[in-house]
Amino acid sequence: MAEYVISGCSSADLSKEWMEKRKIEYIEFHFELGDKQYMDDFGVSVPPHELYQRMLNGEDSKTSQIGVGEYTDHFRKILSSGKDLIHVTLSTGITGTYNSAVIAANELKEEFPDRKIYIVDSMAASSGFGLLLDRMADLRDKGMSIELLYTWTEEHKLEAVHWFFSTDLTFYIKGGRVSKTAGIIGNVLSICPLLNVDYLGRLIAREKIRTKKKVIRRIVDKMKEDAANGTDYNDTCFISHSDCIEDAQAVKNLIETEFPKMRGKVVIFPIGATIGCHTGPGTVALFFWGKKRVD
User: Fold this and answer.
1) 134's torsion region: left (phi>0), alpha (psi -120 to 50) or beta?
2) How far is CA 265 from the centre of its chain?
3) CA 48, 20, 106: angle at the middle one, nearest 5?
4) What is the pLDDT of residues 115-142, one digit of tens each?
5) Taking the CB of residue 214, how many other CB atoms lie within 10 A of it?
6) Reading across the β-sheet that carries 4-9, which strands appear in turn?
7) pLDDT grade, residue 188 (50/70/90)?
8) How confident is the model at residue 27, as a pLDDT?
């Protein structure tokens, strides 16, 4: 059986150390802050706290997706080593980078006819994308072939459940994800929208919760409803946050109270620039395995 590499990108919002430990290769998105271009390199170039402070201070931020040429170079390096490749992209419901990866892969299939190349649309975002990559690494380490891993991923990727909320709608308004009127009213009334990622990989607003305390309670209730085995859940659980570690910790603490088997197992990561440039500060996201997304 030929060796193979699992590859993703920095928008998976794990950490550089986590990716290296799990032997997951990655390619980096780009973002612009103020008038300067940076790589989304897990906060090495611009630490998360600095990113959000600069955004709050008025510096414009925007992201750009990975191009075909960059994917070609990234894939070629792996294929040239004699290994097969399965690459997972950020959701097509958020970005068009999947199409660029497919174009690059198709071009390289002619150059490397003996190598297997699979491209997967994660239908996931942030550490939910990371949750999927982490499970794929588990299955690889248990000896699953690249063909079976590709099939498993396509069959199970929608079981990576995403729920998130924001306590600051400023950048959702700026990016057009919330209307200006609704956003202003929401901020005044301390409304914290509860959102998830649907079966098409899109960010969808589901509920409007008034006050941070109530939305923290509600997101954990959603985990009770959706997690595999309910409060007996004993699988991986990631939380990511955009410069609001206290809120993320509050969610973690409540999970460990309500889900006894999860004590000491919930892992918190910062939201990186690719996602954070659009959410701004104040977002907490919760990811776990559970009911398959159907709407």
Assistant:
1) alpha
2) 19
3) 95
4) 999 999 999 999 999 999 999 999 999 9
5) 14
6) 24-27, 4-9, 84-89, 117-121
7) very low
8) 98
Q: What is the pLDDT of residues 245-281, one digit of tens each?
A: 999 999 999 999 999 999 999 999 999 999 999 999 9
d(CA 3, CA 178): 46
Residue given tokens 């998360």 in the structure block: 48
Beta bridge partners of 266: none
Q: Which amino acid is at 243?
A: D
Give the number of other Cβ atoms within 10 Å of residue 40's Cβ.
26
Is beta strand 84-89 parallel, antiparallel or unpaired with respect to 117-121? parallel
- The 3-class secondary structure across the chain, one letter per residue, is CCCEEEEEEHHHCCCHHHHHHCCEEEECCEEEECCEEEECCCCCCCCHHHHHHHHHCCCCEEEECCCHHHHHHHHHHHHHCCCEEEEEECCCCCCCHHHHHHHHHHHHHHHCCCCCEEEEECCCCHHHHHHHHHHHHHHHHCCCCHHHHHHHHHHHHHHEEEEEEECCCHHHHHCCCCCHHHHHHHHHCCEEEEEEECCCCCEEEEEEEECHHHHHHHHHHHHHHHECCHHHCCCCEEEEECCCHHHHHHHHHHHHHHCHHHCCCCEEEECCHHHHHHHCCCEEEEEEEECCCCC
Structure tokens at 22: 């799990």
Over residues 18-62, the pLDDT tens digits come to 999 999 999 999 999 999 999 999 999 999 999 999 999 999 999
Residue pair 48/61 in contact (Cβ under 8 Å)? The answer is: no
